[in-house]
Amino acid sequence: MSGFLFPKTPSGRSSLIPKPPWHYSGEMLTVEYRTHPDRVAELLPEGATLAGDDPGAVALIWADWQSAGDTLEETLDPVRSQYKEVFAVIRCEWEGESWSRCPYIWVDKDFALVRGYHQGYPKKLGDIWMTRPITIGRAGPRLEAGGRFGATLAAAGRRIAEIRIDLVETKSSPGFVNGHPMLHNRYWPAIESDGSASMDELVTMRGYDGEIADVWAGDAEIELYESPTEELFLLEPLEVIGGYYHRVGVSWKGGTTLMRNSDPAG
Question: Can you give the CATH number for the domain in which 51 is found?
Fold first, then answer.
């Protein structure tokens, strides 16, 4: 049987995702804000502590991606390569190093959902929309001072987040919260469904060949809403730090296992 991931077949053609490396190009809208540090602490893995500086800092990021394997064949069949996502990022310290961590994330395609499980992202399905910058006409904002952007996230039929960003000036970096290697948990319950795990790992990952361009900072607003199936609203905004737009490109091939339960089934 062939294929990087299920379903495995003799040809491997049905696999949800190709084998790495994976390449990503897209654009992001980010709002950074401060929440209660104790809410951040609740989402940290065992042994991790709050960041020493600005422990309540959070980033909520919308991304519109085109992704592909090394052959780039998916770019000629866009339904297999294009997707959107929204993810929350917090920061922490573990083993004497600073890390970024994604406690919540939503995507709108199955291949992105399953690829995230392999990497350690706790992905769920969502309905995601972002304002697109334009270069001609009047049906959208330009990448210039005064450009206005909005984005929304809904899950299970309920809107749970929305942002507004008014561009003010160019910057060299789109914020600081999502600026460290990622610290993820990879977990899968055992088939016995008795509380034991078939996989229980703490992992890290970061990309290579990263590029950013067209970085703009601006004034931002953010609203989070309660839902019976989501807990993002618990990271309630107390103070907005700022908003950002930027384009990004990055590739990913593999991560590193930092800690593994030596006997998950026991």
Answer: 2.40.400.10
Residue 147 maps to a domain: yes
What distances in angstroms separate CA 207 from CA 3, 11, 30, 149, 244, one per listed residue?
23, 29, 19, 27, 21
**Does pTM surpass 0.85?**
yes
- Residue 173 located in a structural domain: yes
Question: Which domain does 164 fall in, by range?
Answer: 25-260
The total of structural domains in the chain comes to: 1
> What H or E segment, with its residue span, contains residue 195?
none
Kindly report, residue by residue over 132-169, the tens digit of the pLDDT: 999 999 999 999 999 999 999 999 999 999 999 999 99
Exposure string over 133-161, b if 16+ CB within 10 A, otherwise e: beeeeeeebebeeebebebbbbbeeeebb
